[in-house]
Amino acid sequence: MPYLGLLFTLTLLGVNLWGLMLIAGLYWRNRWFALPLGPLLAVTLVYAVECHHGLGPSLPGLELASTALSVLVVAMSLVAWEPRGLPAWAAALLREWRQEFAFPRLLGCFAVFAAVFAYAFMWRFTFPDVDGGSEKIADFSYICSYYSGTTIPVPDSWYSPYLSTQYYSFQHYGAALMGRVLLLPPGSAYNLGYCLLVALGGTAFAGAVTLAARTFRTRAVVLACFVIGGTGMTILDHFTDKDVTPWTNMRFIGSAQMDKPPLGPWLKAYNARYPILDPEGHTHVMELPGEIYSYVVFLGDYHAPLSGYYLLGLCGMGMLLWARLRQRRYAAIVGGTLTWTLLANTWVLPLQGLAVVLWLAVNGRDWRRLVPSLFGGAALVWLAAWVYRRPSPPRPRATTPLSAWSPGMSTPPRSSSCSSSFRR
Tens of pLDDT along 213-250? Predict the structure, then answer.
């Protein structure tokens, strides 16, 4: 029975994703672009509503309405019926929409989405626990906070009764919204939200590759390298470290032990020749952190880098579609990714902004059309995400007795009210 319930939940999720894709495709008529964009727009819309009025902890009415609308839109895309009295321009747009989103043409992007989702699902189904490793507990607490369904910013389940004003929790809101709509416990929302975000990020990247590469072989190889590929340091790491781990492969410069002679100590000494001096006068070893997509998927954290790759792929597709079609609607989404990045993965906002600025410089002749579209898209998302209106009391410096801490802990222990809500 639990597996039948899981299958039913995945079916509902798939139908709603298909419907959101088709609704977004009414205006952005590209199937690869509309699939990752539809859910993002829907979450942003509900987010904007809940910035002014919370909708409550469970949303079965929204589930019924969304599913019914999705079934209706899917049916409209599969039949050739046209309403009577439809203007010629509207009939032409309807036929163009049906042609782009005809089911045989959707098989490619659906197959990529399903394959990446199944890959992520395999990891989470095998290792479903939300444990104390890395950022899982912190990510889970953000999802639990948004489960309250109150007006944003919501009460913080970790630092109750203070408000949750984390600056990179937009994707956690999305997972909580999915759980509230599908009536899932927070632990299931964490795991399914993780699989969904991985699949949407992979699909967005695949869409950009499809637009840029001509042959199927090139697309398949590039996508495989993105989803399961490494940094290229694995082989070298075996010659420099006695204990090789995925962490040392991802953060080779600065984090690897470099304790395996003869190459390891030599590289360690070379790295020590170029220390970094902090404002307090202390020196640190230069470090080059890297969390590539495959490592983030392997780690199992529902953390900000997943959104970063997702929005980067969507931004890349918007740039490529602008180059092909010269339509401002795609440039507006490129601008919107800046605000979404600010909400979901603030650390990479400078790089995302640099990419947009360089793209704008390359298309400098069209700046009169691009600049208003970029600022308009960014401003619309910002208006929908205007959340810091209610002042939050200052947080205490420590809410956990020192006796409750153990060596190596970087965050306070989770309260039982949140951790017990996870269900395997």
Answer: 988 999 999 988 888 877 777 788 888 888 887 777 77
Same domain, 249 and 218: no
Examine the domain organization and report whether 157 and 269 are in the same domain.
no
pLDDT tens column, 6-24: 899 999 999 999 999 999 9
Question: What is the Cα–Cα distance from 170 to 187, expressed in whole angstroms?
Answer: 17
User: Residue 341 falls within a domain, yes or no?
Assistant: no
Do 106 and 73 lie in a common domain? yes
Same domain assignment for residues 269 and 301: no
Contacts with 336 (C-beta within 8 Å, 6 or more apart), sequence order: 377, 378, 380, 381
What's the structural domain count of the chain?
2
- Region 43-62 average pLDDT: 90
